[in-house]
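USER:
I would value a second opinion on how I read folds in token form. Give me a protein, with the fold worked out from its sequence. Write it directly below this note and I will take it from there.

ASSISTANT:
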Amino acid sequence: MTHRSRERKERGEGMLTARTNWKVAVTDSGFPDLAPEAEALSGTGASLAPGRCRTAEEVAALCADADAVLTQWAPVTAEAIAAMTRCKVIVRYGIGVDNVDLEAARAKGIPVANVPDYAIEEVADHALSLLLASVRRIPQVAAQVRKGVWEIAPCRPIVGLQGRKLGVAGFGNIARAVVRRAQAFGMTTLAYDPYAAPDVFARHGTEQADWETLLAESDFVSIHLPLNGQTRRLFDDRAFAAMKPGAHLINTSRGGVVDTDALVRALREGRLAGAALDVLDEEPIAAGHPLLQLDSCIVTSHCAWYSESSLLRLQRYAALEVRRVLEGGHPVHVVNGVEAVR
């Protein structure tokens, strides 16, 4: 479905309910303004109540009488959800929903939705850009040039991409987009995803691999996993020891999937040739963090999702999920199993 047809579908369904004084709380955001949300909700009678919530208590205070909640990073905990007396839907700006207590919302009958389709191409572009920068050692070469060093030797070794293996952990939409790009560079691809249908791998020219094979055979491992109890610190000392010597790790998904201390050890000991990360378990990264002291590590500021277009899509799509509910419909992308709206 195209972005435009998706919007038409979402805005066209449902009948506007009798109430016209809906409160839509926005717990927090890093957006320049909320004009896209206001436009998406126009005609519903909804008003936006923006906040700068950093604690569960602040979320509870803002959202206690809200009919819908839009959230980016604020902690929407069980306590905050318990304080919500009128909430019909919680929508997370983005794909990951680890800042929302899904079970608490489910127990209260509140659907939680995300926005999984606003930046697929942007994140895939960034993931492959990180891979290229890591393997071609572009930051290191550029730093040497700034110091007046016009030589290749200080930045060796640099390997070619043709015939190398890219392994993706998780095989959702973003991972598949990364695979398409990698194949265009002459790489072969394999993927680990126990939840993907077997035929999906073949359709994308990708070998289905188990966890051990992914680690042992991949020259580059790109992470595309949600953060949950099963994936938290999945990439730990044991995983890094099992990876192909000299491999590169790319992460554009969730920082908590990687044990940062274990990654530092793997890089320092030379078990990995490089790592390129757009996400970390604690953000923003502290000045002087060990990762920033390693020439073999590239860190970007959780910006893989961003383009001017994706920013507007994220805001608009999130607000359209709210609109659907206020018009008596259901969210498109429910992540906690609650289909019926209170």
